[in-house]
Design goal:
Blueprint (H helix, E strand, L loop, with lengths): L4 E4 H4 E6 L14 E4 L4 E2 L2 E2 L5 E3 L1 H7 L10 E5 L3 E6 L5 E4 L3 E6 L6 H9 L1 H9 L12 H6 L1 E4 L2 H50 L1
Parallel strand pairs: 3-9
Antiparallel strand pairs: 1-11, 2-10, 3-6, 4-5, 7-8, 7-10
Organism: Lentibacillus juripiscarius
Protein name: Restriction endonuclease subunit S
GO molecular function: endonuclease activity; hydrolase activity
């Protein structure tokens, strides 16, 4: 059996970056620069359909520590604690408040293996054990977010595991989109037939 070893997250990541701890000034029109908030990170996904937009200058200021890129993993430190997503786009996004950005060292950990590990019980239990005290809001301290331990097998095993899991996730995502489309079609037809029925009643009267 292949050996799994424990590592600290900062031992297997090239970057672990905290957000800028103040709210970026948003604009009321669309720009290429999108702010990821904690509300956008849910159920293993980063949803960019409802984001705040900022100017290029704000984007550059808020990404001076690191520019988020595809395959970076995002963790919510607070409100809620422990939600995880992975960036799957080349769009210009940046971190809102209470978020952490992990960039995997590809020689040590597959980015998607890091993503699945952060969602798994081994790391989630560590997060809950390190919740900040003295506050009514559960949160993870930045130093703790860097020192959590991850269990890693050799890279070839990581790649095989993530290949299977990612393939399943993509199928689930496709089916969800199909179901959503079918629901929209069904609702449109339902409303259409209601209009016909109402019209028929009006004519009969």
């Amino acid at each position: 059996m292949s050996e799994w070893r424990d590592f600290k997250l900062d031992e297997v990541c090239d970057e672990i970056v905290d957000c800028v701890n103040k709210t970026a000034p948003k604009v009321n029109y669309e720009t290429p620069y999108k702010m990821v908030r904690t509300t956008n990170v849910r159920d293993g996904r980063i949803n960019l359909s409802n984001v705040n937009h900022v100017t290029k200058e704000t984007y550059q200021k808020w990404t001076r520590r690191s520019i988020p890129q595809k395959d970076d993993v995002i963790l919510t430190r607070e409100a809620p604690l422990g939600e995880v997503g992975i960036i799957t786009t080349d769009e210009k996004v940046f971190l809102g408040q209470r978020l952490m950005q992990y960039r995997a060292n590809n020689r040590k950990v597959d980015p998607k293996f890091l993503y699945y590990s952060l969602r798994g019980p081994f790391l989630q239990n560590q997060m809950k054990a390190h919740e900040g005290s003295g506050s009514t809001v559960s949160h993870i301290r930045v130093p703790d977010a860097k020192r959590f331990k991850i269990k890693l097998p050799p890279m070839d095993i990581q790649n095989k595991i993530t290949s299977i899991l990612w393939s399943i996730d993509k199928k689930i995502e496709t089916n969800t989109k199909i179901n959503h489309t079918l629901e929209q079609i069904a609702m449109t037809l339902y409303k259409h037939w209601l209009l016909i029925l109402d019209h028929s009643r009006t004519v009969s009267l």
